[in-house]
């Protein structure tokens, strides 16, 4: 199955459509950061991007999930070109930040979930520091907040089959790390940018 066909199938099964409410699609390097409640989240964001963006955008995903079995491994490696990271405490030889910087290169974008795991509550959990450190290392990249609607109902945690529901992928206005801004302030502001997209569609 080609990436284009897979993207169409994902959109059909989940009903997820991309809404560009704060920015327009653009091939410049970006970090799309979103709330996280389902194993489909990264796939749905990827599938919602126009084809020229999909080819340049790589999900950051958990190695233990996407490396489990030949089908997931094939999709992660050959279709999504995912950046697989260890969820355990990184070592000096396996730093997730370095893998993300290398994966971006000069032209690629990333899909990132700053909560660090899946949570089914109504609000995103506090963001971990990875987004802040990535913003410091790549000040040229736009940081685009994304709010995913209904993904925890389409594929609840622990389930394997998607339930047909209308999902949504809302892309907001890019933010940047301000000069002298603390990690705590930046992460609070980034989380607020995701929540603001939810509030626009409730």
Topology:
Elements: H1 3-14, E1 17-20, E2 30-34, H2 41-48, H3 51-54, E3 57-62, H4 63-66, H5 70-79, E4 83-85, H6 96-104, E5 109-112, H7 130-137, E6 142-149, H8 151-154, E7 168-171, H9 183-200
Parallel strand pairs: 1-7, 2-5, 2-6, 3-4, 3-5
Antiparallel strand pairs: 6-7
Helix pairs in contact: 1-2
Compact overview of the structure:
By secondary structure, the chain is an alpha/beta fold.
Molecular structure report:
- There is one protein chain.
- The chain has 202 residues and is an alpha/beta fold.
- The chain has one domain: Glycerol-3-phosphate (1)-acyltransferase (3-Layer(aba) Sandwich), CATH 3.40.1130.
- The protein has nine helices and seven strands; from the N terminus they run αββααβααβαβαβαβα.
- The protein has helices spanning 3-14, 41-48, 51-54, 63-66, 70-79, 96-104, 130-137, 151-154, 183-200; strands spanning 17-20, 30-34, 57-62, 83-85, 109-112, 142-149, 168-171.
- Strands 1-7-6-2-5-3-4 form a seven-stranded mixed sheet, sandwiched between helices.
- It is globular and about 45 Å long.
- The model is unreliable at 159-164 (pLDDT under 50).
């Amino acid at each position: 199955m080609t990436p284009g066909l897979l993207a169409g199938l994902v959109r059909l099964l989940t009903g997820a459509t991309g809404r560009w409410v704060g920015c327009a699609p653009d091939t410049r390097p970006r970090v799309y950061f979103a709330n996280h409640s389902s194993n489909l989240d990264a796939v749905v964001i990827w599938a919602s991007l126009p084809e020229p963006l999909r080819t340049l955008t790589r999900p950051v995903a958990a190695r233990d999930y996407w490396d489990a079995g030949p089908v997931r491994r094939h999709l992660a490696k050959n279709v999504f070109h995912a950046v697989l990271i260890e969820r355990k405490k990184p070592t000096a030889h396996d730093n997730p930040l370095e893998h993300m910087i290398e994966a971006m290169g000069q032209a690629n974008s990333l899909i990132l979930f700053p909560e660090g795991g899946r949570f089914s509550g109504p609000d995103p959990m506090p963001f971990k520091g990875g987004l802040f450190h990535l913003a410091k290392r790549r000040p040229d990249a736009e940081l685009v907040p994304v709010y995913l609607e209904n993904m925890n109902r389409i594929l609840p945690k622990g389930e394997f089959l998607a339930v047909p529901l209308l999902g949504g992928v809302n892309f907001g206005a890019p933010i940047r790390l301000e000069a002298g801004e603390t990690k705590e302030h930046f992460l609070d502001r980034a989380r607020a940018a995701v929540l603001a997209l939810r509030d626009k569609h409730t």
